[in-house]
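Supplementary notes for students who missed Thursday's class. We covered one full example, reproduced here. Read the sequence, then the structure, then the short commentary at the end.
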Amino acid sequence: MPLILISGYPSSGKTYRSNQLLDFFNSKIKGATESHITRLNVVLINDQTLGLSKDVYREARPEKDARAAEYSAVKRALGRDTIVIADGLNYIKGYRYQLYCEAKAVQTPSCVVHIGTPVEKCKAMNADLLNDLDSIEGYPEDIFDNLIYRYEEPNGMTRWDSPLFTVPYDDAMPPCEDIWNALIGTEGELKKVKPNMATVMKPAAESDYLYELDQITQEVMTAVIAWQKDHLGELGGQVPIDDTTVELPASPVTLPQLQRIRRQFISLNRQHNLAKSRIRGSFVEYLNSSFS
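Structure (token representation):
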């Protein structure tokens, strides 16, 4: 069933909005008479339910482990009769893309709810939480500032961030009815999403699939680095890769950045068994989505 990705700055009120959605969805299910609605249940997944401390965001390794824990919990919860609310920072667009793919793989819709609280308001609320001796919800100042700096705002023009619902700080409620209609539907039956070849899980049929996946993505990465060396000082650019094109951002793409994106793509597609002819194009598409 549908995946609702909550995204926003630290201390922006994400859990408060998530609980509003949780209460609304439970109320809709309780008041329904249709059997396909009454059998639904809603699951909220966040740092609190996973027992994660705010300190995990101080260093890369524990933060990566924390994201892996949330990712696994969401993946386990996604199912025919479960609406999943993933209440977290979800500030990395590549991570949102991965969760979008997981939802699509089980043929269920997803959406992103962006908590649009201004930075200064978030900072003031975080300070209040830190000063509250009975609260453990505040972020240490250095972690707060770092997360603000690294936040990648959702973009409704990309398919993995759409439909996108933005909740202004002054709004009393999220657009709960619109979110329900977008994910559950109003036509008397649940919405389904047709999976594409990049998200359908199936056994590997080609014995050298992993080798090809590794080699082809390495070739694309090498071509991007070589193009940048030949075009020093240029802002952005288009790198031709066979019949596709890598659209580079205005700032230079570093080797570690490319390696990280490549590892994410390989991890995501290790068991998907893309046709060899589609690996190159799919990786180029993934690169472009990561750069946008």
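Commentary. The chain has eleven helices and seven strands. Residues 197-205 have pLDDT under 50 and may be disordered. If anything here is unclear, bring it to office hours.
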